[in-house]
């Protein structure tokens, strides 16, 4: 829709396009330097009023320098551009910008006067930091890009911008190191972003589901972080970050299974301690999935593997329990999930109290009532505790979900069912990919060089190369930073 040279016609057309929008502001004024009639239009709740008054209206209505005859030369707003399509003007206004129409001109000047409400940069709630940065991403994409740039002030850090959504256009910023990022993986991501055709993307989780290789898998195929130091660390390893405007979560791709058990704090503490924590997390993964199912299989079918004294103790504990082990386990596991969800949804002080007190009261009451055994309460408590050790929330939720089918198959086939379920689980992990990158790398395919930062973390000066699983163009990331006593 072309812009008319008549002010009133343009205002009438905009009012028709933006009907039922009470925040639409129309401000008529006269440009002092030229004597032309003009009008400024913007959305009241999406713009910075101080910037409009001080940087737009004041210089246009009071400056009379004849050398500055054009609007973009008179205003003191940082970014100004000209537009000749009324629909583009409408889109700019809805994004928080303002537009100036001048009588007799078939174009409008778009001013970057955005100023919507936003929260301050705070410590992210889901990713606690011990020694790292205490800054977290916010809902403004430009600020999130700036936070990452602070960690990587390098000209090779490139940013590609995509606009996705037909109704609510969302700005996506693809960030990567040009001399490190694999061009084939980068091209694959760009192709997937271009093919997205939706009304709008509200948060990073929706974008992740639209981009992942296998949408039917319960395992997350992209890492999401709210910490700029974590995003910068992944970019330096040869991955890319997708900053979604209006969302505090930044997507990292490609990712592997071991990435979900790593934390940026691992590189801020002693490597021996970090290695112990890594092994603890992988152990928690195994415990969360298999402990309830092994308990059910052993009690229901394979009780001969239990030592005699422990068997007598278990039998005494289950003597008054009328339910089979599978129902006993399902009741307690579902109760644990309900308590967890209740603790999340309630306000923080109340939620913490409900989680702790509820678990103690329900567990003790269930044992005294003879509904469940003491051993079952211990198994459920250990399973819940182990699931909380996994640092990534998406992987933790996936693991808690997988334990239910493992419990069901264990109740039918015993330890044989647990073994078959394990084989199916490993086979599924081997078949997964993230942007064409094997999900179980460096385990399958085997890349021993990457094992320095997988199950354990060796000293930083030992990890001279970037992860081979992401196929970086430039592999080296460390020089000769350490010398042993023998080398001195």
Q: What is the terminal-to-terminal distance?
A: 75 Å
Count of DSSP helices? Answer: 15
User: What is the radius of gyration?
Assistant: 29 Å
Strand content: 5-15%
Sketch the topology as an H/E string, one letter per element: HEEHHEHEEHEEHHEHEEHHHHHHHEE
Q: Number of folding domains?
A: 3
Rough outline = elongated
Structural class: alpha+beta
In round numbers, the mean pLDDT is: 86
- Major sheet strand order: 1-2-4-5-3
- The low-pLDDT segments are 484-488
**What's the assembly state of these chains?**
single chain
Main sheet: strands, sense, barrel: 5 strands, antiparallel
Measured as a percent range, the helix fraction is: 40-55%
Could you give the count of β-strands? 12
In brief:
With 488 residues, the protein is α+β, with helices and mostly antiparallel strands.
Describe this structure in words.
The radius of gyration is 29 Å and the shape is elongated. The strands form three sheets. Strands 1-2-4-5-3 form a five-stranded antiparallel beta sheet, sandwiched between helices. β1 (24-30) and β2 form a beta hairpin. The chain folds into three domains: 7-111, no CATH class; 141-255, no CATH class; 267-438, no CATH class. It is 44% helix and 12% strand. α11 runs antiparallel to α12 (348-369) and α14 (393-413) packs antiparallel against α15. With 488 residues, it is of the alpha+beta class. The chain has helices at 7-17, 49-62, 71-74, 86-94, 141-151, 183-195, 204-211, 228-236, 271-300, 308-317, 325-345, 348-369, 374-389, 393-413, 415-431; strands at residues 24-30, 37-43, 80-83, 98-102, 108-111, 157-164, 170-177, 223-225, 240-244, 250-253, 433-434, 437-438. It contains 15 helices and twelve strands. The model is unreliable at 484-488 (pLDDT under 50).
């Amino acid at each position: 829709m072309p812009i008319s040279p008549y002010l009133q016609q343009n205002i009438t057309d905009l009012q028709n396009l933006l009907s039922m929008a009470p925040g639409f502001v129309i401000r008529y004024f006269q440009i002092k330097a030229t004597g032309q009639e003009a009008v400024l239009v913007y959305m009241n709740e999406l713009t910075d009023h101080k910037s409009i008054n001080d940087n737009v209206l004041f210089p246009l209505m009071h400056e009379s320098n004849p050398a500055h005859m054009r609007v973009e030369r008179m205003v003191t707003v940082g970014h100004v551009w000209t537009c000749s399509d009324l629909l583009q003007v409408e889109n700019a206004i809805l994004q928080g910008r303002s537009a100036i129409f001048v009588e007799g001109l078939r174009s409008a000047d778009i001013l970057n006067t955005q100023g919507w409400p936003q929260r301050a940069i705070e410590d992210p709630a889901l990713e606690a930091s011990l020694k790292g940065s205490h800054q977290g991403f916010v809902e403004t994409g430009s600020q999130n890009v700036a936070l990452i740039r602070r960690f990587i002030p390098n000209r090779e850090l490139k940013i590609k911008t995509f606009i996705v959504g037909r109704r609510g256009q969302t700005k996506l910023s693809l960030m990567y190191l040009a001399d490190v990022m694999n061009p084939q993986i980068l091209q694959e991501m760009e192709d997937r972003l271009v093919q997205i055709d939706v009304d709008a993307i509200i948060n990073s989780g929706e974008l992740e589901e639209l981009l992942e290789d296998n949408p039917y898998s319960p395992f997350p195929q992209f890492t999401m972080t709210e910490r700029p130091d974590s995003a910068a660390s992944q970019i330096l390893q040869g991955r890319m970050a997708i900053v979604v405007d209006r969302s505090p979560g930044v997507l990292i791709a490609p990712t592997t299974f071991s990435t979900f058990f790593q934390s940026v704090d691992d590189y801020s503490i002693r490597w021996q301690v970090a290695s112990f924590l890594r092994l603890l997390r992988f152990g928690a993964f195994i415990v969360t999935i298999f402990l309830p199912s092994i308990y059910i299989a052993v009690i229901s079918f394979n009780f001969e593997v239990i030592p005699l004294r422990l068997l007598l103790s278990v039998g005494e504990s289950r003597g008054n329990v009328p339910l089979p082990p599978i129902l006993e386990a399902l009741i307690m596991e579902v109760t644990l999930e309900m308590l967890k969800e209740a603790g999340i949804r309630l306000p923080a002080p109340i939620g913490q109290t409900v989680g702790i007190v509820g678990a103690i009261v329900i567990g003790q009451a269930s044992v005294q009532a003879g509904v469940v055994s003491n051993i079952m309460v211990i198994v459920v408590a250990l399973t819940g505790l182990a699931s909380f050790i996994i640092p990534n929330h998406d992987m933790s939720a996936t693991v808690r979900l997988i334990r239910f089918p493992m419990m069901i198959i264990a109740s039918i086939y015993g330890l044989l069912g647990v073994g078959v379920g394990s084989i199916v689980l490993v086979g599924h992990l081997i078949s997964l990919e993230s942007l064409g990158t094997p999900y179980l790398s460096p385990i399958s395919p085997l890349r021993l060089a990457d094992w320095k930062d997988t199950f354990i973390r060796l000293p930083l000066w030992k990890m001279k190369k970037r992860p081979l699983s992401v196929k970086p163009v430039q592999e080296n990331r460390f020089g000769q930073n350490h010398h042993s006593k023998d080398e001195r």
